[in-house]
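U., I forgot to send this yesterday:
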Amino acid sequence: MSGPLWTVAEVARALGATGSFPNTPIDFVTQDSRLVKPGSLFVALSGTPSGGFISAFASARDGWEFADKAEASGAVAMIVPHEIAGIRIPQVVVKDTLIDGLWGLARAARARFKGPVIGLTGSAGKTSTKEFLAAYPNAYASPSSFNNFWGVPLTLCNARPDASLWVVEMGMNQAGEIARLSELTRPTVALVVNVQPVHLEKLGSLDAIRREKVSIALGLSADGVLVLPSGIKAPDWKGKVVRFGEKAEVHEVAHAPHGESWQVVAAIGKKEIAFSLTPGAPHRVQNALAALASVHAAHLDVATLAIKLDRVGIMTGRGVEQAVGGVTVIDDSFNGNPASVAAALQSLQARNMTGGRRIAVLGDMLELGDDAPRYHTGLTAHLDGIDGIYCVGPLMRHLYDALPAGKGLGWHDDPATLKAGEVASLLKAGDVVVVKGSKKMFWVNKFVPGLVAALQAKA
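Result:
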């Protein structure tokens, strides 16, 4: 990018601020004072979300309490709800720093970008699919999992105006959130990666989840394109639809394992295209098809993306492998739901083994409501070829009690008191073990690093 992301004067104009502001360049927008670096715009958000949004990480302190720290770290301007005494850098004052400030600047960012924008959501795999789309040359994509009421506008504010493509991931904590995020983003292509039983406690039924995910279409213009998996209905969208999956316009023709990779042939309309995925797994094929379908819908060159897919790695906690003490540990602990746990088990089944066992350490799948016991017991349908299961959490007791004879390696009720050494003692050289469950089960407790350390000590 030849010029700055913003100038202080441009930000002030976008937000309707009165007074004189300098043309000081801004290269980064953040709401976190700890991430401020020289050239940043600091958006001082309230610790309690406004706009009717819900956050699991609400703070007892407000962002403007850290204005001095942001200035000391190199911020060149800040968005605040009132003048902060003692601050020497420009302050753009707005009524509400989230809705009038961050969201207002996001709208200005979107208005000035004329290229294609792919917005995506889904019950599982949306971040992995986003990473596939981000491989398109000169694309800009949401960092990490910036997919909520502050992550999406931050993505838009930091997106490069000269990018070939914007990729914006959207998630939800409450009904109606996807529609609001999509209406802010105004995608030219809206992608639903999948619809699975996630957030059942909040939405009540699989059909309600489908409606929430498909509401991403509400941000599309009349000439936009909705990209859906085969079999998912979108009765309220009357515009163009591109589908991917079995018997769809974009579908897999064939795949073959090649070491730890997959060689895939996909059909896109009447054309076929070959590509590789590393490391390979069946669910990653579906994510790749979703990405290719979206690029096709955006009228970009599909072959240009396909050739890049084998270079897209796996994000931390989403299937990263490491060998330690003769055991291969697959860290898939970032989150878990019935679809993603089944996919993790399917990937484990597909491993080429030269000895050792296929082992799964499974933690509770949360937010499934009254059907939670049934979903946990239902995992027994995905255990062919799995040699042993270690269960963690009160809900996983339902699976443990239903395991076929010889597959149960143990059950522990509380992930906070689970000793990694206890699991390590069950593993032998040659074993491949996947760790999977909702974020609170293993990811928050840093179980996998503990397991790796225990295996190293055991070796």
